[in-house]
Amino acid sequence: MSKPVIATASLAGCFGCHMSVLDIDDRILKLIELVEFNKSPINDIKTFTKQCDIGIIEGGCCNTENIHVLKDFRKNCKILISLGECAIMGGLPAMRNGIPVKECIEEAYLGGPTVGENKEKILPNDEELPIILDKVYPLHEIVKIDYYLPGCPPRADLIWQAVVALVTGDELNIPYELVKFD
Amino acid sequence: MSEKIKFTIDGKECEGQTGQLIVDAAADNGVYIPVLCHWRDVVPAGSCRICTVKVNGRFMAACTTPIEDACSVENNTPELQDIRKAIVEMLFVEGNHFCPACEKSGDCDLQALGYRYQMMVPRFPYAFERRELDAESPKIFLEKNRCIFCKRCIRMIKDEQGRSYFGFKGRGKHLEIALDKKLAENMSEELAMEAMKICPVGAILRKEVGFATPIGERKYDNVPIGSDIENLQK
What we know:
The complex is a heterodimer of chains A (182) and B (234).
Chain A: E1 5-10, H1 16-22, H2 27-34, E2 36-37, E3 52-58, E4 61-63, H3 64-76, E5 77-83, H4 85-89, H5 101-111, E6 132-137, E7 147-149, H6 156-168
Parallel strand pairs in A: 1-2, 1-3, 3-5, 5-7
Antiparallel strand pairs in A: 4-6
Chain B: E1 4-9, E2 12-17, H1 22-28, E3 52-55, E4 58-61, E5 72-74, H2 78-94, H3 109-116, E6 133-134, E7 140-143, H4 152-156, E8 166-169, E9 176-179, H5 181-185, H6 189-198, E10 204-206, H7 227-230
Parallel strand pairs in B: 1-5
Antiparallel strand pairs in B: 1-2, 3-4, 3-5, 6-7, 7-10, 8-9
């Protein structure tokens, strides 16, 4: 039987959850024996080259590109996992939720204390740029998510135990110390 | 006059005094019933409902209901656990609880109940209401995004004349916690620290002392909330 295939992505996140994946230390050698990686920033594969078994996604959805990538993952992965607070509830980027987008953009590009010279009052308008959404959405409010791993970042041991349980079919008994929201 | 009476919680034989609230009597017998609004010996508010138990088959708030002789209390049943988990989830989606950026994280009762009931994701959609942070008083941040309306501060933090420093403003969806600006100007250090301590979430924070305890050593980092009560009789 071929190895299960994993894909990962970071949407509106800080890559901290991916760093936590790397925090499994030398177990990464065991991991590559257990699974094969497809599209992921870890190996820099940019597009799906085959159907994957597990998609692990960090970060919420803050713009149209995030939604596109998330839907692509849903299409190409049998199981999707929300990794970390941002994926689960929007996280720190979602602190702008409740504030109108117009107000946020104006604060960032026109009126904010750190704004330099912007005499022509240009707001980001290149058509290449993804459009910012009205708020930051948790992943499960956009597509179906199968599992959730909370934490900011989720502890490396939590990620390791969850992924191993998922690919081996073993029961997952998470110790109290591993599930944290910070 | 209080008399000794007997009752059961999940079949366990317990003893208490007449007039004692179920939640306190349970704690004396080593049984943890979760609370967010209740504080022992303070007039109960019954506002959070996390302590919901079944008394002789009926749903009751354990913090407002006195025990009666020979009554049978259900506490840790799957049904009640799920109701409590749902309440925790509702509180999480109703306010803006960004745990990673909160000074109370690790010492927060609401978060600790999320851990205890293994909340991975709330079953309800997030509200993301816009609420303000009141930083006007010299000693206290009032972070309205995190208030769960337990009324602990309103009931407990008072001056010598019995006036509350905190109060509610507005109604329904617009209800918010507020701090009396004039009274707060002369709030003592002890009272400010006490207010932060009794707040079950990170809504009341003493200015200039955040993040004092490192991660791994905070109140609920290694032991679930309620362990102190449950370990009483072990």
